[in-house]
Amino acid sequence: MQRIALTGVGAAALLAVIGCGGEEPEGGGALPEEETAPQAEETSPTTTTGDAEVYVLNRYGDENGFDDRRPTEYVATEFTTFSDMEWREWSDERARGEGGLLGTWCMDQECQNDPYDVEVELGDPVEADGTRYFSTYTITGYDDDMTDEVRRALEGADDGRLEHPAAR
């Protein structure tokens, strides 16, 4: 699959999408684990099995990214962002949730203003510097408004791969 480089306009638009609709953690980085996990657990039902010490590298409000679990706002790759996420499960092998999906691949459809409703599963944990990260995502349920053309654009954008430190 061919990667698409963001131009100045595309990068600015992506940053505008990323910067909208949420507050950055104080200090610009991740909040301590004990502050982030309870908030997510209070807002959505979850099932946890094993030690559930698997994270995602989230670039929401921080271009360098930070370790996160059960993020409500999740910048997964330079092309794809999940918003208003509610996680039903976060285990040591997979995470399942639902929320909005948007990215550079759907800007022509103005998805930054009206994200597609999706169900998503994160999987394939990999280890980097002693920390485990989910490395893939699969959309398991699509919004009725999401055309086959838009689905192909999503798949072509990052092929279901999540950014993580081991991939750098």
Percent of residues in beta strands? 25-35%
Overall helicity: 10-25%
The total of helices stands at: 3
Spatial separation of the terminal alpha carbons: 18 Å
Shape: globular
The neighbouring-strand order within the major sheet is: 3-4-5-6-9
Task: Give the helices and strands, then pairings.
Elements: H1 8-19, H2 33-43, E1 54-58, E2 66-68, E3 74-75, E4 80-90, E5 95-103, E6 116-123, E7 126-128, E8 131-133, E9 136-141, H3 148-158
Parallel strand pairs: 1-8
Antiparallel strand pairs: 1-2, 3-4, 4-5, 5-6, 6-9, 7-8
Record keyword descriptors for this entry.
30% strand; 9 strands; single chain; four-stranded mixed β-sheet; five-stranded antiparallel β-sheet; alpha+beta; 168 residues; disordered N terminus
Report on this structure:
The two termini are 18 Å apart. Strands 3-4-5-6-9 form a five-stranded antiparallel β-sheet. It has a four-stranded mixed β-sheet with strand order 2-1-8-7, with no helix packed on it. It is built from three helices and nine strands; from the N terminus they run H-H-E-E-E-E-E-E-E-E-E-H. The chain has 168 residues and is of the alpha+beta class. Mean pLDDT is 78; it is low at 1-51. The relative contact order is 0.17.
Short précis:
With 168 residues, the chain is an alpha+beta fold. It has helices at residues 8-19, 33-43, 148-158; strands spanning 54-58, 66-68, 74-75, 80-90, 95-103, 116-123, 126-128, 131-133, 136-141.
